[in-house]
Amino acid sequence: MASPTRFLKLQDMLLAKTSLEKVKMHLEERGERTVYVWVSRELSEFLKRFSRDQRLSQHIDQIKRAIQMEDHLVLLAEVRDSLKIIDGMLENEYRDMAGQ
Q: Chain-centre distance of CA 1, in angstroms?
């Protein structure tokens, strides 16, 4: 059986994925009319929790910069890349849990 810490880690990844998906949809729908204050608020927990993760730290830096510069194209690309990484992390975690 998996430990409570592992479930919390899994929950954090799922919440991060949800936030990234919401921001991705917002960026795709609004484009240049993106509301950067909302994006920043929506991603704040993801940015804080995963900033030290080597797989995501570079993307997080780019996301922060894109929000500050209000560059929706770079932001969308980095959000998509981050989603791919989070999906891979979730897949690995599920696989590890199933193998126990």
A: 27
Q: Where are the domains of the chain?
A: 4-98
Q: In sequence order, which ranges of 31-100 are alpha helices (DSSP H)?
A: 36-50, 57-69, 72-98
Residue 53 DSSP symbol: -
> Is residue 28 within 8 Å of residue 54, measured between CB atoms?
no
13's tokens: 């990844």
Q: What phi and psi values does residue 59 have, to the nearest 5 degrees? A: -65, -40
The mean-pLDDT minimum among 5-9, 52-56, 68-72 falls in: 5-9
Residue identified by tokens 């940015």 is 47
> pLDDT of 41-67, one tens digit each?
999 999 999 999 999 999 999 999 999
CA-CA distance, 57 to 88, in Å (whole number)?
15
pLDDT of 8-33, one tens digit each? 999 999 999 999 999 999 999 999 99
